[in-house]
Design brief:
With about 280 residues, the protein is mainly beta. The chain has a single domain (about 30-275), classed as Jelly Rolls, CATH 2.60.120.200. Helices cover about 10% and strands about 40% of the residues. The protein contains two helices and 19 strands. Strand 4 and strand 5 form a beta hairpin. It is globular, with a radius of gyration of 20 Å. The model is unreliable at about 1-20 (pLDDT under 50).
Amino acid sequence: MIKIAIITGVLGFLSLNSLAGPVEADWQTDFFDDFEVFDHQNWQDQLLWVNEEDQCYVREGQHATREVSGGTLKLRVVDLGEKRRCFNWDKSGNQHPPTQYVAGRITTKNRQEFSGGRWTARLRVFDSGQAGMFPAWWLLGALNNEPPLEEPDEKVCWPVRGSGEIDVFEHHSDGGPNHYAARIITNLGHCGGGDWQANMLVQQAALGQWHEYGVEWWNEDLVFRLDGEEIYRVKEGAALLPEPFFAILNFAKIKPGPMTAKAWVMEVDWVKHERLR
């Protein structure tokens, strides 16, 4: 009876451990950016018009929309006070109308792309919950056909396999302050066919404080983590999203109307990708 109890206990421990995922010693960092400088080997600006966003993305940190200083990255939405021409286009070739709001969006596309493993970013968002706020830290499949297009295989439309989406952190102001969504976009099998809510968690967090937001491929599942703790698991999610992914950091303005401040800020301390040894 004692032997059976011991064996049962060991099996139970192993079962719980396999659910929890690998221990930290099992992970090896293969990409890390702590934003001492803006490294063009890791990141590039991404200009496009999606989600009927009200702002215009601009290059090279114009109007302080992207700033690296003091060892952190700041991405901002900035109110210029007057409308200006916008050089962003949507997937159908329509140009964004003139707007007084500009913002920063950067991506590791064609710079740092990985299959599986674990992505994590340490970041904070100031004064969350302001009407129209839409900051995000997320991943997109490397065959995605949105600009910049630099490789011949970038032909897959969102969210078909090869162009899947994982939102590690997305704050939509409609829900008020101090919350974010973590999810995968469920592929409905055709271009533009994505279910945003089928595999989604809305999580409370003090967004103005530093937190680590991560997602990892573990066996067949996708595991979302907040400060290292599992908060959500998409069963068989890893099997649905096997392609290489690149990372995106952006701050959007999702609704028309005035801003409550001259600028909104998301500050990022670091971003990393790890793989199992």
